[in-house]
Design brief:
The protein is an alpha/beta fold. It has helices spanning 19-23, 26-39, 77-84, 97-111, 116-123, 140-154, 175-184, 201-217, 233-245, 269-285, 303-312, 329-344, 360-375, 380-394, and strands at 11-16, 46-51, 62-66, 70-73, 93-96, 128-134, 162-167, 189-194, 222-225, 253-263, 287-295, 317-322, 349-352. FE2/S2 (inorganic) cluster binds at residues 16, 18-21, 53-57, 60, 62.
Length: 402
């Protein structure tokens, strides 16, 4: 093991090697700082360490220079070298500990700060933020729909609550950035509410992991986790409404019309079977012989298999009913699939119903999930607990989904 001789050391550079900084060139920056130190033979004077995330991911890459306590945002290797030479321009500073201490001493003197200040602060009303988490799509229109949906929902949320939107993957801000936005806007309490249909990997692991990660960086902020949309009466109502929009009579008896409900499909058996429960609840509300379930991917039955079943059961018309929140690549694919089936089976008619989108009942569910989180009755708290246990047993490396 190497034992450093620290006697001549004058500076210690902490180079962030957290996942965001590494994704923004952290390795090159680490190397160029070390090479510059070597080139100038400053090794005995400047020590460097790689660190994990420093909680300022938006300033990536972060480098901290002690004992001065200068925090830098380092966008490229040029600035990295300037750090070694202490020639960094002011725009690349994030924070200067020495200066901040001086400023604080001066303002305290000026104001004659008393112990009451702290007391006053703790008596202040806590600022609450609701952070909605959409899945995110490579298809930007889907992301825009999520943002619009939250804009509309905001009208039904009281003004004292800060409302922000973020995404799990494929869109910005991501969850980490969303949490930072809430904290920067002054939130003391952040309520993270997933806009996710079924409880599976994203809601069981990925979002809880982000919340646990954020807790480390914002120890003064409390985080509460909401629960997924799940099996909810309002969702059945939305499906019924979407059926009626394509001319399906909800009160009549249907022998030859099949309803093929389509979900995304995943590897979580619980989530897949929850979808079956939903389609069964839909069947209970109708007088229709054929209600089938199929998945776009990962699991079976596939959409062509679902169609085949409907046809074998004697369907003359198939209504493809998406169990999808917003538009996206899969909705586009479903549209194409429906058109292809229509071409292939000229004796059967095919109709594609609309996805959930801006349905007011979807707003109702999200508002209910938000209220549960605010009241402390959300099952999301148990999810966080489960995640902690899971991470202890199996390990869980925090990473970003974008
Ligand atoms: S990864 Fe570097 S500050 Fe978060």
């Amino acid at each position: 093991m190497t034992t450093w001789n620290l006697s001549g050391m004058q500076r210690h550079l902490l180079i962030c090697n957290g996942s965001t900084c590494m994704g923004a060139g952290g390795e090159e920056i680490t190397q160029s700082i070390r090479q510059e130190i070597k080139r100038q033979q400053l090794d005995p004077l400047i020590h460097t360490s790689r660190t994990r995330c420093n909680g300022r991911c938006k300033d990536k890459c972060v480098v901290i220079d002690y004992p001065k306590g200068n925090w830098y945002s380092v966008p490229n290797t040029e600035i990295a070298k300037q750090i070694v030479n202490e020639a960094v321009k002011p725009e690349h500073y994030i924070y200067k500990v020495e200066e901040a201490q001086l400023q604080q001493i001066n303002t305290e003197r000026f104001r004659g700060v008393s112990k009451n200040t702290d007391k006053r602060k703790s008596n202040q009303v806590k600022k609450k933020a609701i952070l909605f988490v959409g899945h995110g799509s490579k298809f930007e229109q889907g992301n825009e729909e999520v943002r619009q949906f939250i804009q509309q929902l905001k009208r039904r949320i009281k003004d004292s609550l800060l409302v922000e939107t973020c995404f799990l993957e494929f869109a910005r801000p991501n969850i980490e950035e969303g949490i930072e936005i809430c904290v920067e806007k002054g939130a003391d309490e952040v309520y993270v509410i997933p806009i996710i249909l079924l409880h599976a990997g994203h809601s069981k692991l990925h979002i809880p992991a982000e919340i646990e990660h954020a807790k480390e960086h914002f120890p003064d902020v409390t985080f509460t986790y909401g629960q997924t949309i799940g099996i909810h009466e309002a969702i059945i109502d939305i499906l019924l409404h979407r059926l009626s929009e394509v001319g399906f009579d909800l009160t009549a008896k249907h022998e030859e019309i099949a309803i093929l409900c389509i979900a995304r499909g995943g590897s979580d058996p619980g989530a897949n079977s929850d979808f079956y429960k939903i389609t069964r609840l839909l069947w209970e509300k109708l007088d229709v012989k054929i209600v089938e379930s199929a998945f776009m991917g990962v699991t079976k039955p596939s959409v062509p298999e679902g169609i085949e079943r409907c046809l074998k059961l004697g369907a003359k018309k198939v209504i493809v009913l998406p169990y999808f929140l917003f538009s996206g690549i899969l909705m586009n694919r479903m549209q194409k699939m429906t058109a292809d089936f229509s071409d292939k089976h000229s004796d059967v008619s095919f109709e594609l119903a609309k996805y959930f989108g801006y349905h007011s009942k979807l707003q109702d569910v999200l508002l209910e999930r938000m209220q549960q989180a605010l009241d402390g009755t959300s099952t999301g708290l148990q999810d966080l607990e489960n995640f902690r246990k899971y991470a202890q047993e199996h390990g869980y490396e925090h990473h970003h989904h974008h």
